[in-house]
Structure formats: C-alpha cells, structure tokens
Amino acid sequence: xxxxxxxxxxxxxxxxxxxxxxxxxxxxxxxxxxxxxxxxxxxxxxxxxxxxxxxxxxxxxxxxxxxxxxxxxxxxxxxxxxxxxxxxxxxxxxxxxxxxxxxxxxxxxxxxx
Length: 113
Hints:
This is Superinfection immunity protein. The protein is an all-alpha fold.
C-alpha cells in the first residue's frame, strides 16, 4: 500500500520535476526544430549534458513563421499560408538566404510572430 509520504513524492515528481525536464521542449514549441529538440529532450534529457544541449538548441533557434502564424491567428488566410510555405521551401532549397527569408515573412505577416 502506498503511504502518505510516497504520494507526496509522486506528486512533487509529476508537478515539479516533469515540467522542468521538458522545459527545452516547451520553450522550443514554436521553433523550426521543435521535433528534434523534443526527441533529444526525451532520449538524452536524463543526462545533464543532453538536457543543457536541448535547452540551448531550443532557445537559439528562430521561430517558424508558418507555425507562429497558425498559432497566433484565429482564422488563417490560405493565401498567406501558401506564400509562407513557398518561402519556406525556397529557403530550405537554398534559393533565398536566411535574411531574405525573414524579411519577406515579416513583410507578409508583419510583426505578429
């Protein structure tokens, strides 16, 4: 039978330790590399080095304009989404550089992200 002290420890673990463990993933939620930070956090977060690397990686990555636009806008405009997808594909293939990509997305959706 579980005693009172074990219940308190379980509660502390679930409420305090778990969010701290997943802090890098929470901070990288709207970033371009969210999935990779999450996977690194899940599989190597138990090591202090893996947790710190995922935290730094999650903090230093730029926001994904498409994901931020979808989460911050109640009714997404299909034309803007299509243009953001086109710009992201051009950036991923190397047709435009990072600065041009960010300037064009800012012009398209403003500073709402």
